[in-house]
Amino acid sequence: MKRMLKLLVVVASMAMMLSLFACGEAPQEEKTEALPPQAEAPEEAAKTVKAGFVYVSPVGDAGYSYSHDLGRKAVDALDFTETAFVESVPEGADSERVIRNMARKGFNVIFTTSFGYMDPTMKVAKEFPDVAFMHCSGFKKAENVSNYFGRIYQSRYLTGLVAGAMTKSNKLGYVAAFPIPEVIRGINAFAIGAREMNPDAEVRVVWTKTWYDPALEKDAAKSLLDAGCDVITQHQDSPAAQEAAQEAGAYSIGYNSDMASFAPKAHLTSAIWNWGPAYVKTVEQIKNGTWKGNQSAWWSMADGVVDIAPMGPMVPEDVKEIVLAHKAKLVAGDDTIFAGPLKNQNGEVVVTEGAVIPDGDLLGMTWFVEGVIGTTE
Fold it and tell me: Which helix (H) or strand (E) holds 245?
């Protein structure tokens, strides 16, 4: 009996030792497996970039805000980003409120995409020095504010070549938003291209004083069609001018995105934006800590930010070849669109032969070139 009791004691002791040994090993294995994720978690969190976008018009309008939102989607597709946007935000007090709300919610970078957001952006930026702000098309900067735009005038010039070749009446209509340098510069580039192809072409401008008002845009286009214009282009956010041209049996040239689907019988091409590369580059800089304020970026066709849509089947092949040859030069960095000699609309030489308008003057352009009918007010 004692012998059996001893045996039971030995067995029990061995079982207890095995149990203690097993209990001692398990935490070591669990600790080894658990440490890497625990060490990586803060690093992964630090890599997340929250990017906010403020739009002046609806994203579904196929226009300016639509093109910016395509760029936002390119950012959102990255594995280290979160994005959000607010659309149809009026310039002024409303935009200031929206921008401030984004900053309060912890966005790392906020893209304010309309010219009239400039002062609200600057005001909010002072309150949130740790937030990066990117303002589109403006000129004011700060330690945490940079501005950016694209050389869309290059695309305007190419579409002007198409318009000059396609007009029969020599009258081209331009439905334009506001008489600011951005818009005036585009009108001038369009006119230069048109008159290279057709020296008798003239560009008639109607101001709407709005970025987005489809009914008003369409009425403006109709007034130009009634005046004999047989090609209508635009600096507006909706395809209304395209639709007006098709209804009148005229040609049209879109803006911001490829608007062929809205007026397939009229649409010659469009001057288009491709914000994706620029926005992706910016958020990568935010992530890497290399982004800087007090900067100005003016991206070109060589950077892939501006382009033209495919030309329609009604455009002759020889015209397409000429346009694509000029595009190839711009992609290669050869930009002489605003090279002299250039006259203003009064016939006065303002850029002499051999001279090129510097970027600073282009950014502040307030006068029309020869061939443009309209005022800059």
Answer: helix 240-247
